[in-house]
Input
Amino acid sequence: MRIGWRLVIAGAAGAAAWLAGAGPAAGLAIAVLAPIVLASAPRFLAAAVAAMRTPTAREDPTNAMSGTEFEDYVARIARSTGNPVTMTSLTGDWGVDIIVGRRPHRLAIQCKRQSRPVGAAAVQQVVAGAPMQDCTRTMVVTNHDFTPAARKLAQLHGCELVGGADLPRLRATIRRLTAPDVPDG
Output
């Protein structure tokens, strides 16, 4: 029955084109294209509405999240890179919330959803906890920003910091940090 309504639309579109003064070739082209356009319109409109609801780089989707929801958000982004993702338990995680990648390029991530800049303690926790989780790289992700002390400590230990303004680039940063090392030469 799906073909039936398409044939009716095609016939009506072709007849309307002919009555409007279009030639036989134009009427046939309209008759063929009309069902295709009408069949794809619902998908196009659904995608357009979904795109309008997708937050842009200026909008912060993390505003209404709890700390646990923020961890889930970061884990979803990490999973979208194609890497295995492990979320650690709430207690006894040694300061590592999420583990991304395969050995020997595992990334330890500490997530901090806060209303103020994240301090050096978060960097200390993930840097100390990474070896306990068999991770070679570290990252702290926050919805806010970092204190100067946290930036200095992260630079000293090679810890990647991703603040609120950098969240749109989180996926690319995770891909870079979990990629196998390419030997020079």
Q: What stands out?
A: The CA atoms of residues 64 and 70 lie 9 Å apart. The two ends are 63 Å apart (CA to CA). The longest strand covers residues 107-112.
